[in-house]
Amino acid sequence: MRISELAALVGVSTRTVRHYHHIGLLPEPVRLANGYRDYRLRDAVVLARVRRLAELGLSLDEIRDVLADDQGRELREMLEELDADLARQQEAIGARRTRLAVLLAEADLRPDSAVSPEMAGLLRDLSSGGSRFAAVDREWLALMDTVADPADRAQVLDLMSPLTEPQALARGHVLYERLDELEDADPADPRVPALAADLAAYMPEAMVTAMIGTPADAHGGRWLEAMTAEVSPAQAEVFRLLVITLKHRT
């Protein structure tokens, strides 16, 4: 087939095909007596694979490495791998469309509606009657749900799960209220160490390990850093004492 036919078959421009030839990404095919390139099915498979890998975000150098591994492989194997690539893409699109359908079915879309359903439920549980501290927690958890990989997201949900039990929720809302009361307090306020101790007693052991027993750049460390950056001096002192207490506990 001609270059225009190849380009139309794969869904790229003839300019793209010529560019891939120029940089050595797509081998030059045999030319006919009249000088025209004569493309075969294997050329179309290679070009389609280049397009798919580029759509996945691979650089041209990375694509070249992948294609080098394809040399000498059977056409059927190449087609099967290309089909697997497309199946993964289709699965990802299907999952995103399912989530969109859930969102569109909601009568009242809220800013936190875009997070996963599991995290949305947790955020609703943490809505402690307008507590400023609860709002900071909600914002951090929403951010985590957006940027964390699935494994880290699942870990956060597991760590927070014990705190969503009715008694724990009620206790947590009281702690939020006590934190809010310290917004304009002096760091030397006697309520500060008492609240730090109560917070330490409130936190499950697994959460303590994740927050204290991990590197500072891990999610637990970043949570503590985010807390102290968003609060008043007295509230920051609560978290400083909390960290000290938890380190002694681990």
Automatic annotation (TrEMBL):
Q: Indicate whether Transcription appears among the record's keywords.
A: no
Which CDD domains is this protein grouped with? Answer: HTH_MerR-like
Protein's UniProt keywords contain DNA-binding: yes
Q: Which Pfam families does the UniProt record give?
A: MerR_1 (PF13411)
Q: Which GO terms describe its molecular function?
A: DNA binding; DNA-binding transcription factor activity
UniProt entry keywords in alphabetical sequence: DNA-binding
InterPro entries attached to this UniProt entry: DNA-bd_dom_put_sf (IPR009061), MerR-type_HTH_dom (IPR000551), MerR_fam (IPR047057)
Sorted alphabetically, which PROSITE patterns does this protein's record hold?
HTH_MERR_2
Identify the residues that the record assigns to the HTH merR-type domain, covering every copy: 1-69
List the PANTHER family hit by this protein, alphabetically.
Answer: HTH MERR-TYPE DOMAIN-CONTAINING PROTEIN, REDOX-CYCLING DRUG-SENSING TRANSCRIPTIONAL ACTIVATOR SOXR
According to UniProt, the name of this protein is MerR family transcriptional regulator
Organism, scientific name: Planotetraspora phitsanulokensis
Lineage of producing organism: Bacteria, Bacillati, Actinomycetota, Actinomycetes, Streptosporangiales
